[in-house]
Design brief:
It contains one helix and ten strands; from the N terminus they run E-E-E-H-E-E-E-E-E-E-E. The chain is mainly β.
């Protein structure tokens, strides 16, 4: 039914470049639109970029460190959007009610605004930065990843409580900013491998920190 339908549209362009099997670059741009947002901000643009350097292919390392099978450094940055609200949530909505005028009067049906709209509601945006090292050592007997990430989310999609005298309990709005950062370490080892038996170990360490940077943008 029309009460639950929404329409999304997305366009994306990507450019990949690889030079000398050791330098890699990727650029991406997304243009997303959703009918759930107000008429002033239905569309948003989300760019991203990633750069990688395969250090193990450099002659100064390839010829002098035979125990390094692969060593790669990579950095990425990008934005993504969130539109997780129900269809028509940004529109002013109406409801009906029944009312009797006086004793023994006829019942009348009235229409009143039941939800406040927000034409300026926009996409919740998350900006992420990642720095990582990928490695494989000793003929792939030991491999893993060391990664640091920093993520900020702005214009969170939240329902803000309104004073009772407005006649509306809540309204969808963009509020605050949160930050998420941390470190992840992944190690994989092949301890023993024979034609009939193998023994491997996986180790994962993660440290994460969450912070509310701002609630209403004025604090």
């Amino acid at each position: 039914s029309g009460a639950s339908r929404k329409r999304d549209v997305s366009m994306m362009g990507r450019l990949n470049y690889r030079y000398n099997d050791r330098y890699l670059v990727t650029f991406t741009v997304r243009r997303d639109g959703s009918s759930v947002f107000g008429r002033n901000n239905k569309y948003a643009t989300f760019p991203s970029a990633a750069v990688a350097w395969i250090v193990s292919e450099e002659s100064f390392l390839k010829n002098n460190a035979k125990w390094i099978d692969m060593l790669k450094l990579r950095v990425s940055w990008g934005k993504i959007g969130n539109q997780a609200i129900s269809a028509y949530g940004t529109l002013t909505q109406s409801a009906t009610t029944k009312y009797v005028f006086g004793d023994g009067g006829n019942t009348s049906i009235g229409i009143y605004p039941s939800a406040m709209g927000n034409n300026n509601l926009k996409w919740e945006t998350t900006t992420s930065t990642n720095v990582a090292i990928d490695f494989q050592l000793f003929q792939n007997r030991l491999s893993g990843t060391l990664e640091y990430y920093n993520t900020k989310t702005n214009d969170l999609l939240l329902k803000q409580n309104l004073p009772i005298m407005t006649g509306f309990p809540q309204v969808w709005t963009n509020l605050g900013e949160v930050k998420n950062s941390g470190v992840e370490v992944t190690l994989n080892s092949v301890n023993l491998q024979t034609p009939k038996f193998s023994w491997s170990t996986d180790f994962v360490f993660s440290y994460n920190k969450n912070k509310i940077v701002s609630l209403y943008g004025i604090d």
